[in-house]
Amino acid sequence: MMFTIRPYTEKDAAACGECLYEGFFTAPVEDCDKILLRDYAQVLIEKCNFTYVAEADDGQVVGFICGKYSKSFDRPLANRYACKKHYGLWCRMFFKYYLKQYQMSGPFQIQWDHFFSQLQERDSKTFGTCDLELVALASKAAYRKGLGTALVTQFLSRARADGADTVRLLTNTLASWEFYEKRGFARVAEKPFRDGSGNRTIIYEYRIKETSNA
Q: Which H helix or E strand runs over 47?
């Protein structure tokens, strides 16, 4: 299957929310859950410096990938955002979320709580040593024939063009972490979840210059 990889635009927010769901969740969702996913996807994307989406032949957005630059690598790049920031949306979402006004359905709420707790495992010190962080890679399960590879290839091309050397990302043993090892990412850190569940947080790194010289 062929995909067109292009920069994210604001009209893609709802579709990215659906991709986020199908990339990380299995519980059935209701309309209220989809609203949260859309809002979270948009806030996540606006916090990143750039985002690319994958568009199928029928025009449907079926995946997206985000990147965030370290200020220690390049302050101008780190302060440059490819899409407009909607600060009002950020505030409304977080107030609405912490006041429990999204009214999520029961099964989805359970999975969301696990997902959100896993986000807290991110160690800022670990990511302070890389040039560019791969913040999110999400895609629909039905479109895995080359989709993830196409998105990561575009991401690394952008990183290389901007002069980045090291890319890092966080994943965990609940996700398809083998995907990254098959594409040249090396495991550089690993630690158990703080919740005692036995699952592990894994940090992967891709060194662009070493790979280019290989």
A: helix 31-47
In eight-state DSSP terms, residue 121 is T
| Cβ atoms 149, 176 nearer than 8 A | no
71 φ/ψ angles, rounded to the nearest 5 degrees: -65, -30
Q: How many CB atoms lie within 10 A of CB 104?
A: 21
CATH code linked to domain 4-162: 3.40.630
Position 3 scores a pLDDT of 84
Q: How much is the mean pLDDT over the chain?
A: 87
The CA dihedral of 141, 147, 83, 33, to the nearest 10 degrees, is 0
Amino acid residing at 59: G
Neighbours of 118 (CB within 10 A): 20
pLDDT (0 to 100) of residue 175 = 59
In whole angstroms, give the CA distance from residue 64 to residue 83.
Answer: 14
Residues of the chain with confidence (pLDDT) below 70: 1, 121, 141-144, 173-177, 196-197, 212-214
The beta-strand segments (E) located in the chain are 4-7, 50-55, 61-69, 132-139, 166-172, 186-192, 200-207
Please give the Cα distance from 23 to 142 (Å, whole number): 10
25: how many CB neighbours lie within 10 A of its CB? 17
- Domain map of the chain by residue range? 4-162
29-85 pLDDT, tens per residue? Answer: 999 999 999 999 999 999 999 999 999 888 999 999 999 999 999 999 999 999 888
